[in-house]
């Protein structure tokens, strides 16, 4: 998936077909892992993207305990596991992450510590495939209407561009030159 799923061209401008939902999950000793996979549950095809903005250590966290959050996701054609946040009471209670996951599934795991660690972000939903088809039809109709209006204006412009009287006068003058100012002054 890529950003192209989230933008639809409509005429001159761009319509952003995007809905975002504030998402969050809490990892702790009783709930050490959470998987984000909206495509597995989806009834309708829709593009999805997950943005994790921040990791926060909860107020119930134990002092002097390191809490490490790891992410597992697909990168190209292989699975990767990487720690994204290391939090400790008295040192680092929060971490700004700003990590984007354009492909599901993504698994978050508390690999060290008992938490609680809160992950906060946004789940971006692109337009349904059916909505894109409707948009394409609408765009084609708009283009057809614009072409029809343009040809109508061209016909009107051509009629206005050829004043018959002036053209006849210019062709009657000697070699298409304008009359001299001396002749006009005598009248």
From TrEMBL:
Location relative to the cell: Nucleus
Keyword Membrane: yes
Protein name: (African queen) hypothetical protein
GO biological process: chromatin remodeling
Chain intervals with Acidic residues compositional bias: 136-161
Family statement drawn from the similarity comment of this UniProt entry: Belongs to the nucleoplasmin family.
Taxonomic classification: Eukaryota, Metazoa, Ecdysozoa, Arthropoda, Hexapoda
Keyword annotations from UniProtKB, A to Z: Membrane, Nucleus, Transmembrane, Transmembrane helix
């Amino acid at each position: 998936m890529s950003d192209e799923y989230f933008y639809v061209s409509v005429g001159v401008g761009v319509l952003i077909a995007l809905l975002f939902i504030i998402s969050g999950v809490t990892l702790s000793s009783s709930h050490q892992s959470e998987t984000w996979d909206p495509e597995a549950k989806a009834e309708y095809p829709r593009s999805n993207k997950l943005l994790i903005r921040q990791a926060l250590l909860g107020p119930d966290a134990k002092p002097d305990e390191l809490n490490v959050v790891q992410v597992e996701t697909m990168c190209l054609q292989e699975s990767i596991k990487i720690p994204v946040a290391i939090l400790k009471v008295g040192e680092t209670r929060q971490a700004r992450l700003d990590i984007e996951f354009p492909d599901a599934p993504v698994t978050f795991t508390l690999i060290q510590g008992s938490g609680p660690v809160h992950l906060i972000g946004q789940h971006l939903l692109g337009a349904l495939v059916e909505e894109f088809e409707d948009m394409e039809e609408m765009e084609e109709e708009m283009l057809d209407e614009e072409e029809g209006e343009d040809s109508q204006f061209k016909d009107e412009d051509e009629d206005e561009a050829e004043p018959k009287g002036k053209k006849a006068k210019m062709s009657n003058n000697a070699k298409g030159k304008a009359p001299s100012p001396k002749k006009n002054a005598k009248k």
